[in-house]
Amino acid sequence: MGCFSPSWDGTLSPKDFSVAAHVFTERWERNKSASPSWFWVNSPKGPPLLASSQHDCNEEESCTVEEEAGSCEIDGAADNATLVQSKHHEAHYYDFHIVYSSSYRVPVLYFRAYCSDGRPLLLNDIEKDLPACSSKVLLETKWSFITLEEHPFLNRPWYKLHPCGTSEWMKLLCLGDEVAATNGPAIELYLVSWFSVVGQVVGLKVPLEMVKSH
Amino acid sequence: MMEAQKYVWEGAIPLQIHLHESEITSLPPPPPALILAPRIGYLPLLLPLIKPYFSSTLPPGQDTLWFDYKGLPLKWYIPTGVLFDLLCAEPERPWNLTVHFRGYPSNLLIPCEGEESVKWSFINSLKEADYIINGNCKNVMNMSQSDQVELWRSVMDGNLDKYIRSSSKLKLGTVTTDEADMVGQVKAGKIPVRLYVWSVNEDFEDLEDAPGVDNWDQISYINRPLEIHKEGKYFTLHDALKNLLPEFFAGKSLINDKPCIEESEDAQKVSSEDVGSSTGAEDGKEIFSQPMENDAEIKLIRIQGIEPKLEIPFSWVVNNLKNPEHFLHICVCVKIPNVKAA
C-alpha cells in the first residue's frame, strides 16, 4: 500500500479516495461494533458515492456497500464519490454521505436527518442529538462547521461539514505520528483517520481496531 | 481592461416577472414587473425592485422570496445569466419568471435569508476558487471585513472598475503568461469550472423545439477544476471541454450542426486547419466530422450567453467570461438516445 510523501499537503486524489474508502468500509464491516455499514451508492447524475444509514435504537446501525458503475454517459465526468450512512435515533433517522470534493481534494461528510414521518429536522433539533463532544470538535478543528448546502448529486439541501480546513487538520493529524512522519502517512488509512474526527461531530465513533495498520 | 469582460458585467436579462396566482389577493391582478437582471447577479438580490410591484396584493405572512420558471424552482445561488443560458435554450426575451413570496420549497432549495445568504454563498465560492488556484483559502479568509464588503458591493453594483481594484488583492490572477491572449498560452494550473450538462433524449432541429427542463435531475452539475498540463501549448476551449467531458470528445466530432459556430463553411475549414497545425492534426480534423459513436451528441455549448467558437484560446474564455467569484460557468446540452438512458 502506498504512502503519501512526507511533504504531503493533506489532500488525496480521486483514485486514492476510492482505495481509502474501500479499506474504510472493509474495516468498518470487520468491526461489528461499528455498525451500520457503509455502502457504495450509485448516484444517477454522478460517480458512485459511499453511503450509510443509521438508526440509534439499541445502538444498532446497519449499512451496506455496493458499487455500481456509472449508469449514464455523463457519469464519471466528475471524480466525486460519496459515502453514505443513515442513523435513526428513536424517531430520528440520519443519512450520511461521504463525497469526494474535486475542489478541495478531500472527503466531505454530508448528512440529513428526519423523523419517522419524513419531516426533516432542523439544525437545532440535530444539535440536541449530537454528542457533547461534538461542539468541542467543531471548535477545536475551527474550520469545520455545519452548513445547509445542496447535495452535489441529489439536488436537495443536505447538511455538510465544510471541507476548507480538512487538508490542514489532516496533515496535523497524520504527520503527528512518528512513523507516518518519516515514511509518509498511509493512503489507505486516510478515510479511517478522517472519519475518526468528523465522525465525532455527528456522534459516530471509529473503533480503535480500525486505526491499527493491519 | 478586457472589453469582453466589460460586456459580461454590463450584460442583463430582461425579466417579465409574474406573481404566482395563489398569492394574488386583489382585483384586478397586478401586472407583471419588467426588470433588467444583471447576468452576474443573483435573483434574490432583485427583491427591492420587485417587491413594490406586488406588496399591496400579497396575503399576510412573512416574505420568503423564490422564483420558478415553468414550474421549475430556480436555484438562487446560480448566477442569473447562467440560469438563463441553461434553462432557455432558445433565449426568451423577456424571460417570463414567476415570483413567490410565500411557501418556500425548503425540501428542494437551500434556504435563503436575502442578501446575507447570497453574499455568504458568493464568498464561499470565492474561497473554493482560491483553494483551487492557490491550494488554500488564505487570501479570501484573510481579507479584511471592509475589503470583503467593498468587493461584494462592486458585484452588487456591477461596478467593474471597483471590482478589479478590490479583487486584485486576492491574487487570484488571470490565467495567462505574457501575451497569452494572443497565443493562447496557459500556465499549468487549475481553473475553477462549474459545468452544467443538460441531457435530452429527444432530438430537435431548432433550439426553439428543444424540450424544457422540468426537473433539476435532468441537469448534471459537474464541479471539477480543470487541470492544465500542456505548458505553453495552444490550449483551446475544445481542449478544455475534451478534458472535462472526455466521454463526448473522445477523439470524435464536436458539433455537427450550426449552433456553436456561426460561420461560413470555408471559415470553419480554415480555422480547423489552424487548430490542427498547433494541437496536432487529429484534433483538427475531427472537430467537424460526423456524430459520435455512442450517438451522444453535443447540441449546444453556451458561456455568458454566447456560443463561443471552440478554437478560441481557453485563457481568453476564462479571463473574459468567468463570473466575479472566479468560476467559469459552462452550459452544455447533450442529446443522449433513450436506449442508453437505462
Structure description:
The complex is a heterodimer of chains A (about 210) and B (about 350). By secondary structure, chain A is an alpha+beta fold. Chain A has one domain: Yope Regulator, Chain: A (2-Layer Sandwich), CATH 3.30.1460. Chain A contains 7 helices and 8 strands, in the order αββββββααββαααα. In chain A, strands 1, 2, 3, 4, 5, 6, 7 and 8 form an 8-stranded mixed beta sheet that branches. In chain A, a hairpin with a 6-residue loop joins strand 7 (about 145-150) and strand 8. The longest helix of chain A has 17 residues, at about 15-30. Chain A is globular, with a radius of gyration of 16 Å. Chain B has about 350 residues and is an alpha+beta fold. Chain B has 3 domains: about 5-100, Ubiquitin-like (UB roll) (Roll), CATH 3.10.20; about 115-170, Orthogonal Bundle (Serum Albumin, Chain A, Domain 1); about 180-340, Phosphatidylinositol 3-kinase Catalytic Subunit, Chain A, domain 1 (Ubiquitin-like (UB roll)), CATH 3.10.20.90. Chain B has 14 helices and 11 strands. Chain B has a 5-stranded mixed beta sheet. Chain B has a 4-stranded mixed beta sheet with strand order 8-7-11-10. In chain B, helix 6 (about 145-155) packs antiparallel against helix 7 (about 160-165). Chain B is globular and about 65 Å long. Mean pLDDT of chain B is about 85; it is low at about 175-185 and about 250-295.
Key descriptive features of the protein:
heterodimer, A: 214 residues, alpha+beta, eight-stranded mixed β-sheet, globular, B: 342 residues, Ubiquitin-like (UB roll), Serum Albumin, Chain A, Domain 1, 3 domains, four-stranded mixed β-sheet, Atg3/Atg10 (chain A), ubl conjugation pathway (chain A), Ubiquitin-like-conjugating enzyme ATG10 (chain A)
